[in-house]
Amino acid sequence: MGEIILPRRLFLWCMAVIYMVAFVSLYVQIPGLYGNDGLLPARWQLRYTGKPLLDQMLSSPTLLWLGPQLGLDTQTSMELLCLIGAGLSLAATLVEAFRDSLVFLCLWVLYLSMYQVGQVFLYFQWDNLLLETGFLCVLVAPLTLIRGSRAIREHDRVTFWLIRWLLFRLMFASGVVKLTSRCPTWWGLTALTYHYETQCIPTPLAWFAHQLPVWWQKLSVVGALVIEIPVPLLFFSPLRRLRLGAFYMQVLLQVLIVLSGNYNFFNLLTLILCLSLLDDRHVRFWLCKTDKVEEEKNGSKLLSWLSVLLELAAWSLVIFGTITCFDLQYDATKNLVSSRTAYTYHQFNQFLKTVTIPCVWIGVLSLTWEMITSMFRCACVSGFLRRFWGMVQWSVFAAASVSMFAVSLVPFTFIEYDSNSRLWPGVRQAFEVVDRYQLVNSYGLFRRMTGVGGRPEVVIEGSNDAVTWTEIEFMYKPGNLSAPPPVVTPHQPRLDWQMWFAALGPHTQAPWFTSLMYRLLQGKRDVIELIQTDVSRYPFHQQPPAYLRAHRYRYWFTEPKADGSYPQRWWRRVYDEEFYPIVHLGNTFLDSMLNQYGLKDKSSPRRVSNTTVAQMVRWLRAQVRGVPAPMLIWTLIACSATFSLLQVLLSKTKRTERTSPACDASEKASDHTEAAADGCSDLREETHEQQTKEEEDGANSEEEVEQSDGDEDEEEDRMEKEDIFDNSF
């Protein structure tokens, strides 16, 4: 694999953006979710038992334990940590010096602090993925703030390889669990005929995708399974074009998911992980700065033809396996491609047992190769001290990479029990030690397709007389039949997401729902803003409802009319059953549920902190109150991108100004050389013999000079590549 300077720097810039999105998205929801009057107050997770601070930090690793030391309550502390995280990540997107290992360590600690008290609203796979990727950024990022330099380090290829291994685990497991779950829709290749309308928060394009013919939906399932199971094996191919092909297939899948569903920053984060499959040469190709000299240097006809043959063999094997495993046949009469699953669960299980351990060994060999090549790079550095310091760094980061890889084998082999049981016990013990810090995680997306009989949706209704009922409409989740599906990516409305999960079962499986009904009866503004940012659109904004109830409906997308025109409504629905009975403040059932789940706070109200920091946090909250979260997030992203673009343009202007005087000087020098050439022609014959003798005497010294010049040229090439993104990514 070629140099990875540019993909690595682009990866770190994108991770700073993702952190900024995650912190801002969470910040706007803290009062309603975790505030003193929120659904699940975070202070209930921090029980001050009188133990030393260090013991409390070890039992629950979160910086929120420091809140009382600063005179802050838990809600204010959470908002402060989110603001610090958003500020640091914004600085990292604007200034490359802040894309530092220490900064990413701070961002990881801040998000982990939120995760520890986030309860059910933060227990999503993308939160785990962000924490794992964020910790790897600590290893990948340079120590710019300490060293004052962002020069390439010889071990960067080793640490950056961990990103590729994480991408492999994520995609491979996501494909495998769809089949190991024995979900009939995945095995019948009909999952996408339900997916677009039953996903949590669809986009408007999901309605159009849902109207595609069944044979196309089944073929799309085949494509998704192929991209997620066999194609990730190409991530570790020594052939560059195979990795690039796998890269673009992953990008295609993630972009289609982003267009058809609102999955916050999850798919964007997956796209960022895909950058680990690229090298400098391909990024320069994107920038239209292809190095022809480098291409000619790497162009051996024999190796090129051999590589092409191997690539054709690999893609032919993938195509042949796809046709065989899914019995793809073209029906000329109906002009469609038929497909079906041509293997059994037992056969797939045997396949999984066969390939899981070899996948581990492929990872071992790939990591070993990166470590060996990086070690040789360190050994070839000129200068004893530089070489020694490089080897010390290589040893530390190689050991860290091996440790992370070994621990990650535990959650990776969860997909196959026998393979997991064969792991060394010491690895499992190490995983148990670091599990609370979310350093490595298991993944498995869309394991089972829900809503096969119609999308279940909970609709809350309020009334002042228990006779006339008014539906309470949420901003994002389906409710109003005429309201178009929203586009909220990369924001995640966490209450709307949990409402989707709550509809899949009885309300007893979602204790927080009782707290939601209780807070709405109390008329708590912070909770109301989770439902409608513009409180005036909430039907009971002037006076809380006296009664509340909830019903479950079944939703489906509407169909186009017979003449091909679009219907006026996006959804149709039928009544299913009662989800939550009629309750009011003081209701026996409501009080019993609150007491059963421990949701009724019996402690005395805490004093509002009046420290300077608390006042600043409250002032900032007042400024953003009422601003839609997607608008706030996209404004920050647009400003960051614009600032980075301006930096690129300014750097190009400065380089042009520096180049112009040099060109003028070279033209003057060439004119002077031509004038002097005529005068020197008579002396050439006299000095020829003397030059020959001097060349023979200086042969050895020239070899040394050429070697040093080669080192200088190599260093200049590196610096030239680094200058490409000096003021951008």
UniProtKB/TrEMBL annotation:
Question: Which Gene Ontology cellular-component terms appear in the entry?
Answer: endoplasmic reticulum membrane
- Per UniProt, residues of the Lipase maturation factor 1/2 N-terminal domain are 123-284
Where would I find the Lipase maturation factor 1/2 C-terminal domain in this sequence?
Answer: 439-581
Where do the coiled-coil regions begin and end? none
Q: What keywords does the record list, in alphabetical order?
A: Endoplasmic reticulum, Glycoprotein, Membrane, Transmembrane, Transmembrane helix
Query: Chief localization class?
Result: endoplasmic reticulum
Membrane topology term reads: Multi-pass membrane protein
Which residue ranges does the record annotate as region Disordered? 657-729
Sequence intervals crossing the membrane: 12-30, 76-95, 102-123, 129-146, 158-177, 219-239, 251-278, 312-330, 351-372, 392-415, 631-650
* Cellular localisation: Endoplasmic reticulum membrane
Please give the function described in this protein's UniProt entry. Involved in the maturation of specific proteins in the endoplasmic reticulum.
- Record family assignment: Belongs to the lipase maturation factor family.
Its name, as the record gives it, is Lipase maturation factor
Its organism's taxonomic lineage begins at: Eukaryota, Metazoa, Chordata, Craniata, Vertebrata
